[in-house]
Design brief:
Arylsulfatase, C-terminal domain; 2 domains; 4-stranded antiparallel β-sheet; 11 helices; binds calcium ion
């Protein structure tokens, strides 16, 4: 092989260096120009409910395009099987068991997100982000628990779940109820309008737009713009209305010239509500749905888009979890993580960039306040698939069930007997986690 002479070596070195620089993702944003964050968070949308995740009749071309322009994860988890705890872990970077928000809040519930929790919005305020929550809050409806008390400059949306109507579901702008009862069929358009207005008004400063959609949670309602359009019936109409909303929001980001300064994430809070039959969604090939720690209840669609930073068209099988969004955004914004409490999320930007992986560590899944399952590598151990309900005790000595999620993603074949050592390891992981909680770690 011919050796390079000095000049050739220098030329080759420079070329490789320049190409490497062009190829590699840009370093974390400069502290004075941190990126914008847009988190679009569907409600009860299942793993199998988007065309880019294999649904045959729900048509989501705009979400699919977002995946083509960015990265799509196939093993992204919610930490929870229902709305409130899922939102709590997203906004705090902590397992919901640490914040006490382990169950769905009802209209009569007197508590909410504890004031001492540091939300993603609060942390971003330290870097002068403009912040807004548009959509379904569901982390406490009393004034001291509302979004504007948790770091959001503005709020537009509903405070409780949309199926809890007595004495009537109110639409709020900040702390003021502006419509009662709210016209649920009009919400997707009003949320989208508010989002577009917020992006436009804040295009010259870093912003955080958190949009927890009310859709596709029952009761399903759309106005005539979307009614009867989908081959999947009313559920499809509602799912496709989210797709329309995504198109409008992404277009506005582009019109404002912010594509390359904005990380957009789309995901869902928990799996499909299967007992609603045709009005509930689909978890595709996964077992179970909402309320359960089977994969269908906790594995979510997840797409991230950031042109110029995240390479387009990738699919990643890395195992990541809801709390990672908190840590990733703070890392990108140059905000130190709170150091006076456990933070469970990891920075998954290397996963999204395609240059690294998330550390392999056990991930824990609660149903209510019961630790129901743990995943480590390909293995998942299930002890309690579903909370027995408030005030009821789960079985004292449940039979552990073990699944290899790589060969058996549908959790059909319990292999606990064949791998007692793995069962022991994962049970020890669970015991260690519970012991750590008790010690405040
Ligand atoms: Ca939900």
């Amino acid at each position: 092989m011919r050796r390079l002479c000095g000049k050739e070596y220098l030329l080759t070195f420079c070329t490789v260096t320049i190409l490497s620089f062009l190829y590699l993702p840009q370093p974390i944003a400069e502290a004075d120009h941190p990126p914008n964050f847009v988190i679009l968070f569907a409600d009860d949308l299942g793993y199998g409910d988007l065309s880019c995740y294999g649904h045959p009749t729900i048509h989501t071309p705009n979400i699919d395009r977002m995946a083509d322009e960015g990265v799509r994860l196939t093993q992204f988890y919610s930490s929870a099987t229902v709305c409130t705890p899922s939102r709590a872990s997203l906004l705090t970077g902590r397992y919901q068991i640490r914040t006490g928000l382990t169950r769905v809040l009802f209209p009569h519930t007197k508590y909410g997100m504890p004031v001492e929790e540091i939300t993603l919005a609060e942390a971003l305020k330290t870097k002068n982000y403009a912040t807004i929550c548009i959509g379904k809050w569901h982390l406490g409806h009393l004034p001291r628990y509302r979004p504007t008390r948790h770091g959001f400059d503005e709020f537009f949306g509903i405070l409780i779940a949309n199926n809890f109507v007595p004495p009537g579901l109110g639409l709020y702008r900040n702390n003021e109820e502006i419509e009662q009862p709210v016209d649920q069929g009009a919400l997707i358009e009003s949320y989208t309008e508010e989002a577009i207005k917020f992006i436009t008004n804040n295009k010259d400063q870093p912003f955080f737009l958190y949009l927890p959609y009310t859709q596709v949670h029952i009761p399903l309602q759309v106005n005539e713009k979307f009614a009867g359009k989908s081959r999947r019936g009313l559920y499809g109409d509602v799912a496709e209305s989210i797709d329309w909303s995504m198109r409008e929001i992404l277009r506005q980001i582009g019109r404002c010239g912010l594509d390359e300064q904005t990380l957009v994430i789309f995901t869902s809070d928990n799996g499909p509500w299967l007992s609603e039959k045709e009005n509930g969604g689909s978890a595709g090939l996964l077992r179970g749905g909402k309320f359960e720690v089977w994969e269908g209840g906790i594995r979510m669609p997840f797409i991230a888009r950031w042109p110029g930073r995240i390479p387009p068209g990738r699919v990643s099988r890395d195992v990541c979890i809801m709390m990672d969004i908190f840590t990733t955004c703070l890392t990108l914004a140059g905000v130190p993580l709170p150091d006076d409490r456990p933070i469970d999320g990891k920075n998954i930007m290397p996963v999204l960039d395609g240059i690294g992986t998330r550390p392999v560590e056990p991930l824990f899944f609660y149903t209510g306040n019961i630790l129901g399952a743990v995943r480590r590598g390909p293995w998942k151990l299930v002890l309690h698939e579903r909370s027995p309900g408030r005030g009821k005790k789960p079985p004292a000595n449940p039979q552990p069930r073990l699944f290899n999620l790589l060969t058996d993603p549908s959790e059909r074949f319990d292999v606990a007997r064949q791998h007692p050592e793995i069962v022991n390891l994962l049970q020890q992981d669970m015991s260690n986690f519970i012991e750590g909680l008790q010690k405040g770690k």
